[in-house]
């Protein structure tokens, strides 16, 4: 079977084989992003059959073939086979419009077989279509157990990213011409997909524990730690939802294109199952704290979904939503341990987190500017918006600092702290840290997430530590102690 044109035709699957992603699921996610209300029709279309679902999606959604992840090692092999004169045929259960677009983009195939006219080209239907077109013998390249019925009638198989069980079964049915091993996700890949490094944001759940100076109360401490763990799981689930909805835009972003879903290293079914598990387990943990806290988690989930599906597309509404999501974590922390929140803390958090959200957007626009692009993809921002966003962000930083000053001289603060005058030392720390963030942004040195930057930046870590030390000293310092 090495004689160039004498080789039997090679029939190639699309989803999971040529590309590690699933074009049907990607089309559904694009529709959800374009029109959430129209996406409610998906179950009704599915009831009428998968072929109808694919047809309706193909009418409304056009996938960007340039952005799809392609399996480079397998494409290289197909190029070699075509150069030897072998006939290559794309046979896929995807809709014909998607299949023909993929074939045109790759420029490798002589014919295309795909779902059309109410016939879902999968399993036995695919085998019948292959036989009508090429007869026998033929070689089939696929990736899943659904392809076993085709391999059973093929003269040889090309295995692409199959599971161990599918490989074992296929090898008993047919000789294997080539085997392209699956690219499994490791612990680092899962940590990246779940954005474990972003869990530091959920330390905000502990803020009421610190401001109420209840960290020595074991009951409050245990509730706060469980609450933070629940938010970590919930946040990872919402990150996956956001990444699924944002796949096309992430693929056009210089850094986000490397995310697990955008790059194809994680497939959509994996992300869906992980999301369900994370949200369910997170809510169960939340219920173990209290029903009220679980309600706050549901509020956070609704706000996050609103942000991912709608609000992130609109200028300023997105940064206001991000600021609110940070603040909700603090409110949830107060609910978890049953303490009231100071209005000073709420005002300070809104100014501060609005400032940080604007840092994030300005950093992204600076990256766009450096690359010569003038507008974001999927968000209503342009590079010239920096002239408005920049002073707005700096003003928010000043507002947060002003609120801190008003808090320090408030009667309730003076009554609560043993040495409230010491709190004035937090003012230069806060001004230094926020000013540093904006200077780094202007230099193009800011990560697109200021929280991640603060974790890695030594100056930021020392500043936050100094503020915490000042608060503890101001609270517990005895006026009778010698200075």
Give a brief outline of the structure:
This protein has 483 residues and is of the alpha/beta class. Helices cover 60% and strands 6% of the residues. The protein has a six-stranded parallel β-sheet with strand order 3-2-1-4-5-6, with helices on both faces.
Secondary-structure topology with pairs:
Layout (H helix, E strand, L loop, with lengths): L9 E3 L10 H12 L1 H4 L2 H6 L2 H11 L11 H12 L4 E8 H11 L4 E5 L8 H11 L4 E4 L5 H4 L4 E5 L3 H10 L2 E5 L6 H7 L13 H5 L6 H28 L1 H4 L9 H4 L4 H22 L1 H19 L7 H21 L5 H29 L14 H23 L2 H6 L9 H17 L7 H7 L1 H19 L7
Parallel strand pairs: 1-2, 1-4, 2-3, 4-5, 5-6
Helix pairs in contact: 1-4, 12-15, 12-16, 12-17, 15-16, 16-17, 17-18, 18-19, 18-21, 19-21, 21-23, 22-23
**The biggest beta sheet, please?**
6 strands, parallel
Helix/strand order? EHHHHHEHEHEHEHEHHHHHHHHHHHHHH
Q: Report the span from N to C terminus.
A: 90 Å
What percentage of residues falls in helices of 4 or more residues?
Answer: 55-70%
